[in-house]
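Thread amino acids onto this structure.
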């Protein structure tokens, strides 16, 4: 049971498929997927789970339970839900309750000693669950783990785990940036950390793992609770990771476990609504973590757009503008200092606060075509960084038309 009754359903849920009838032995791992109108991708996620092999804590073959919580998807998803294997437990809400509440429903209905939250637009690669669980078995002080996340089939672009959002970082974002020197230092630190994550072979402590794929012992959820149902979408994972660490647990990123994420497919169906959810969730996160003083400062910052425009970062210096592109760009990379290895960062943010990264050794970088087709219209930025010095060698911008 999720502590504090966080996972209690707000409306009845209907079980339409069960796990092998009577249950002789409890599963070692329960995987919870929340679906909202991405049924085709959901089937791929489930297939990737069924292909996984892992050991249970007792060393025997691991027993897997899969639960799908459908948040009132439209009629076009009905055919995909009907095609789920009969070993999958399907629950259907009569309205969209949001991601956090649906996850908590799945936790309450599950039976595994370990729990995995998995996005339906994700696909686990071979050996991922085995690597994640093995680390949890070995390290009882670790409360949750997550995998290496790629955004393209060729494993070219990596999504490195982000640090927890802080009041300072959110205020800087709201106020339009900060002075060039501190921002440059922060940028170099992010860049070199991303390079370390790219090269990593062993698990690394992190501040946050996204809800894309998060694996934890059930006892952790029992102790700190599930996701806060006050978050409809976004920030529920950040707040949960903050609570986990406040309770004395650690988080670990396990690079031997790999996952392909077809990024943000549910949210893209209504970008305006997703943006409104993100804004409300961000404000809630600040209030929960920093109290009324932090919430007041945050509200003031949101009411003062452009206050720091004269001291904001100027990302256009040396920028090569590629204009409106109908297809993925190929970037010509300048030489670095010594090694030909260079880090490529791609973002929809001119300050590169959130990036996908790649390491290139050739003279060009071809942006992955399968990522391009999933990108929403709008401006994008890329930069090439010397891996030896952290110095930016080149930067580009382009726009993907509607």
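Threaded sequence (402 positions):
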């Amino acid at each position: 049971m999720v502590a504090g009754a966080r996972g209690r359903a707000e409306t009845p849920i209907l079980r339409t498929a069960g796990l092998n009838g009577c249950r002789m032995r409890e599963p070692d791992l329960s995987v919870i997927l929340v679906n909202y109108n991405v049924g085709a991708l959901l089937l791929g996620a489930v297939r990737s789970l069924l292909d996984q092999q892992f050991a249970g804590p007792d060393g025997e073959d691991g027993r897997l339970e899969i639960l799908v919580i459908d948040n009132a998807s439209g009629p076009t998803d009905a055919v995909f839900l009907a095609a789920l294997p009969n070993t999958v437990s399907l629950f259907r809400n009569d309205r969209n309750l949001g991601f956090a509440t649906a996850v908590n429903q799945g936790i309450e209905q599950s039976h595994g000693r370990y729990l995995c939250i998995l996005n339906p637009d994700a696909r686990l690669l071979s050996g991922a669950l085995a690597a994640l669980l093995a680390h949890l078995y070995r390290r009882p002080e670790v409360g949750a783990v997550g995998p290496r996340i790629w955004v393209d089939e060729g494993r070219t672009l990596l999504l490195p785990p982000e640090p927890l959002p802080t009041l300072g970082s959110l205020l800087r974002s709201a106020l339009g940036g900060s002075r060039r020197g501190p921002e440059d230092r922060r940028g170099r630190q992010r860049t070199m950390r991303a390079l370390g994550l790219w090269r990593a072979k062993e698990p690394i402590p992190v501040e946050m793992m996204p809800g894309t794929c998060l694996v934890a012992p059930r006892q952790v959820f029992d102790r700190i609770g599930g996701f806060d149902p006050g978050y409809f979408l976004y920030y529920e994972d950040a707040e949960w990771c903050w609570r986990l660490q406040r309770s004395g647990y650690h988080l670990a990123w396990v690079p031997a476990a790999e996952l392909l994420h077809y990024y943000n497919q549910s949210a893209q169906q209504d970008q305006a609504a997703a943006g409104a959810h993100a804004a409300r969730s961000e404000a809630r996160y600040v209030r929960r973590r920093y109290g009324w003083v932090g919430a007041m400062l945050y509200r003031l910052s949101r009411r003062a757009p452009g206050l720091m425009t004269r001291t904001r970062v100027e990302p256009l210096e040396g920028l090569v503008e590629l204009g409106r592109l109908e297809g993925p760009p190929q970037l010509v990379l300048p030489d670095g200092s010594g090694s030909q290895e260079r880090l490529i960062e791609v973002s929809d943010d001119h300050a590169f606060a959130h990036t996908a990264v790649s390491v290139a050794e050739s003279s060009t970088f071809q942006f992955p075509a399968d990522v391009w087709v999933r990108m929403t219209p709008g401006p994008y930025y890329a930069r090439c960084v010397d891996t030896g010095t952290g110095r930016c060698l080149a930067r580009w911008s382009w726009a993907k038309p509607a």
